């Protein structure tokens, strides 16, 4: 019996090893399912952000007439005036900020798909809907002094959001330039890269010409003339530096960047008050015609898309670019995603109130006023400065390396007999 038991025992020990490949395959399947859930979840957060934007617009333009119940809240002041118009937008923005900041705090340390925080980010929508409703309700009970303080804080947060968005745009331009411009392995992309470069520069020059003919008709429009001419100067400087022998970046990236700063200049001039003789357009008149409505909806979607695209672009802000991606890693940085959306809540508040905490914007208008104009102009100049620094920095680093190597070479040669 003992000999029979000794013969059977080794056979029994080998059986469990058959189940190992099955468990590995099951893990891969689970990771793939969790990854798909996380990718779908970001669109749900984008929809939540869009709904919050619509709530801010509704409270600003129609809240006082449609929501008379808020008149009875003590925090809303006499007649509920502190819960509508500019104050109403800031209260909605604060609620959106609270929600996404809570999501940032609860997901910022997530690294793997099998962690509990990944399930919280990608699921539990009933609980998150309740959290969103509570977050949107809390600002209604805050006094106007706290809301005004949040407005000052939101200006800073909106500025940080613009910087993050700008870095993301420049990283995208750099990637596009590397993808389309030719190298030794991709000689077939040369004609397409040159065609795209020419197209962007033609669009930039045409944009400058159209701005000058539309918004600088008179010599009294000195500010618009300065904006347009300085934009043209920045375009020439970026093109010249890109073609310099030490930089040698080509024309595609500078052409895309030129089109971007021309767009920022055009957007800044259009944000000038409509009563100016140098801005003949009609905007924000309160009639709600189809052109005004369409422009407003396009601007609203642009806010959501800018926030969404910056939020999922966490790779542009990584200090270590060579991190190896494993199959159980999360597809994007959840903490950074929610942080960008919380800053985006401050950004859309500034656009709805035109960066002015004291005066309310007109119906169906967005980002109109001198404050909005100067924010966009400064953003344009800052964008050009960052792009020029990306051109200069590799050359400066290379020159520093050469300067450090030269003394070492002199010492070595002096020792030779």
From TrEMBL:
KW Cell membrane (keyword) present: no
Keyword Membrane: yes
Keywords, in A-Z order: Membrane, Transmembrane, Transmembrane helix
Membrane spanning residue stretches: 43-60, 88-108, 129-150, 156-177, 189-212, 224-243, 250-269, 294-313, 334-357, 377-396
Pfam entry (one): Serinc
Membrane-protein topology: Multi-pass membrane protein
Compartment annotation: Membrane
Signal peptide: none
GO cellular component, one term: membrane
Family in the record: Belongs to the TDE1 family.
Protein name as annotated: Serine incorporator
Source species: Rubus argutus (Southern blackberry)
